[in-house]
Amino acid sequence: NAGVTQTPKFQVLKTGQSMTLQCAQDMNHEYMSWYRQDPGMGLRLIHYSVGAGITDQGEVPNGYNVSRSTTEDFPLRLLSAAPSQTSVYFCASRAGGYNEQFFGPGTRLTVL
Amino acid sequence: AQSVTQLDSQVPVFEEAPVELRCNYSSSVSVYLFWYVQYPNQGLQLLLKYLSGSTLVKGINGFEAEFNKSQTSFHLRKPSVHISDTAEYFCAVMGTYKYIFGTGTRLKVLA
After folding, report:
1. Which of A87, A77, A72 is nearest to A32 (CA)?
2. What is the pLDDT of residues B9-53, one digit of tens each?
3. CA B56, CA B30: separation in Å to the nearest integer?
4. DSSP letter (8 states) at residue A61
5. What is the pLDDT of residues B72-98, one digit of tens each?
């Protein structure tokens, strides 16, 4: 069991570039989420999914897109990177009900 | 909407001393509460959770938390901390479909 994997670990972008952060889980979890972590602000939810084909916005969705075509994968797309998107991004997954979330190791993104 | 407040952004404590990290939540009919720990340069991992039943919840690494409905609190405690407990700790409440996290408390254990 690899758990939740994220690629890349580090990324530097220029303003206006686009990219996709990859997230995959091998635990057959229904729920997957993307968070960003900024100093003093904790984890803020960007988008989440309750199953393949079903996604919804979290509290900070602007500038990000997601899709969930399979149970395993939940990529996060930055459409046109901005310096305000410099952050550490975490993907997480969990089974249904009131179960714990399992987190990936994170992607550290810098936008210049 | 549900929310959590972590009252302390940083807590320094000497090794082998007790520690309490505070968390308050907004009231709701059903409350499901969690504490997660994040060691440097890692993702988060679950310390403990409260879903129902006994209000005193024991977790990994000697941590425990007490659910107090009247004070809407879920404070995390450890009677004797180690250097290895230095990390950031997050309180979270589960809402409909999603978690809501607090802003975190950075625990620094001093030798």
Report:
1. A72
2. 999 999 999 999 999 998 666 789 999 999 988 889 999 999 988
3. 17
4. -
5. 999 999 999 999 999 999 999 987 778
Q: Measured between CA atoms, how close is A56 to chain B, in angstroms?
A: 10
The rounded radius of gyration (Å) of the Cα atoms in chain A is: 13
CB nearest B34 (choices: A56, A90, A100):
A100
Residues 38-77 of B with CB under 8 A from A: 41-46, 49, 51
Asked if B32 is an interface residue toward chain A (Cβ–Cβ < 8 A), one would say yes
Q: Does B97 touch chain A (CB under 8 A)?
A: yes
Cα→Cα distances A29→A107, B47, B111, Å: 21, 20, 41
In a 3-state reduction of DSSP, which class is residue A84?
helix
Task: Identify all chain A residues contacting B23, using CB atoms and an 8 Å cutoff.
Answer: none
Is residue A97 predicted with pLDDT exceeding 90? no
Comparing CB atoms, the residue among B43, B51, B98 nearest residue A105 is: B43
Determine the Cα–Cα distance for residues B59 and B103; give it in Å rounded to an integer: 21
